[in-house]
Design goal:
18 helices, eight-stranded mixed β-sheet, globular, Rossmann fold, 4 domains, 10 strands
Length: 418
């Protein structure tokens, strides 16, 4: 099935979506050499495919992972995903089980992929091994299937404390594609999903966005957000406008992040000093107004005096006259949020290393507005790790996903030192 001939003759370029860096080309070459060896072990192939899928190392010559598998290795998409899932099972088992005692085929591991927790998989595998040993034979796929089916309590185990899916996820940045990780988060367990998603305007190999990917994230957001949960999605104005329909289930609003310290580099035309933020929610969201108040300006401080209070249900009147009524913390935030971009002096102060890093003050404001202490914040596209850092500084839990291994490593370093 996996042959060297396929590896040399299966290239296809139907409009490459990105060039690989030297490091990515090295990763792709290493992973493909593992596959081309001819199934030295099914889980090694699965791990190689998983790396290619999660890092999108196929993108230079193929539009999708499914197309890559079909043309490069004559593999169907379901089969490729089975191998990826089985490799995760073996990775879990290998922490407790000697290599000689691991599953010998993907079929043996398949039933275990339905169990979400590593502890569940280990226990089920040990029971399957014991069942086969009692019969005086090697483990078969039927043994693992029988074990999983005969122990329903194992598959639905609910230990006390946080939901089981959060035990190994919370307060960590995980390396991998959010499409694979988001389904591991329990329903209605998240207070806010806040993310600076890839814009899809070709800033680098990491900057890829499609309508299909956005639909997956929105669908998962609807599942994992609490009824009081909020959704914030940073995006390029034009790309986001084209995908506006994707966000409709979240009853979206168009917020604008405005910054005065924009770069003057580029073509002699109108520049950019704003970005869109899609703000949505499931039901009645938490909104801590005082956490987002902004200082009054000359315009906003006189507006209340000149306003026709007689026609406004928010009017403040005394003896028929308008009265000044200012909040000590500032005015209510509107749909334009002004924070300096992470350039020049701000970059040095925040130790910028990600090309699209967002200001910590802005992310702290969004976290503070939409969540309460102890709540959980999720960032599917971790990038520079600013959302996670803001959550931790404000006493919230966080879960971050980042498919670029180097970005994920730097995120962890930033969290460790910040």
């Amino acid at each position: 099935m996996y042959t060297t001939a396929m590896a040399t003759n299966g290239q296809h370029n139907s409009g490459a979506v990105g060039t690989l860096t030297t490091r990515e080309q090295s990763r792709l070459g290493r992973a493909e050499r593992t596959i081309a060896k001819g199934l030295k072990s099914f889980w090694e192939v699965g791990m190689a495919l998983k790396e290619i899928r999660d890092q999108r190392l196929y993108r230079q010559h193929y539009d999708t992972f499914a197309e890559y598998c079909a043309r490069r290795w004559d593999l169907s998409r379901p089969r490729a995903y089975q191998l990826c899932a089985a490799s995760e099972v073996v990775a879990d088992l290998s922490t407790d089980v000697d290599v000689r005692g691991l599953p010998e085929s993907e079929a043996q591991a398949r039933a275990l992929t339905r169990l979400k927790l590593p502890a569940q998989r280990k226990q089920a595998w040990k029971l399957a091994v014991a069942r086969a040993a009692a019969a005086g034979r090697a483990v078969t796929a039927k043994d693992t299937e029988h074990t999983v089916r005969s122990l329903p309590n194992l598959a639905s185990m609910k230990p006390s404390g946080p939901p089981p899916g959060l035990r190994g996820l919370r307060d960590k940045v995980h390396t991998g594609d959010c499409v694979e990780w988001l389904p591991k988060i329990p329903d209605r367990s998240v207070a806010a999903l806040i993310t600076d998603a890839p814009y899809g305007i070709g800033q680098g190999g990491w900057d890829e966005m499609s309508r299909e990917l956005a639909e997956v994230v929105v669908r998962e957001a609807l599942r994992i957000l609490k009824p009081t949960g909020s959704f914030f999605w940073f995006g390029n104005n034009e790309v986001t406008a084209g995908m506006w329909g994707v966000f409709q289930p979240l009853r979206p609003r168009w917020l604008t992040w405005f910054y005065r310290n924009s770069s003057n580099i580029g073509q002699p035309t109108f520049g950019w000093n704003s970005q869109v933020i899609v703000y949505g929610h499931r039901g009645q969201p938490v909104f801590n107004l005082d956490a987002a108040r902004v200082p009054y300006s000359a315009n906003t401080s006189t507006h209340r005096v000149n306003h026709d209070d007689s026609t406004s249900r928010f009017g403040i009147r005394k003896n028929g006259q308008s009265q000044k009524c200012y909040h000590a913390g500032g005015r209510k935030p509107m749909d334009v949020l002004e924070f300096p971009a992470v350039t020049a002096g701000v970059a040095e102060a925040e130790g910028r290393w990600h090309p699209a890093q967002k200001p910590l003050a802005l992310m702290r404001t969004l976290v503070a507005v939409a969540t309460n202490p102890g709540d959980l914040v999720v960032d599917p596209f971790c990038g520079g790790g600013t959302t996670c850092l803001a959550a931790r500084q404000l006493g919230r839990h966080f879960i971050g996903f980042e498919r670029d291994a180097e970005f994920a490593r730097k995120c962890r370093q930033r969290l460790a030192s910040g």
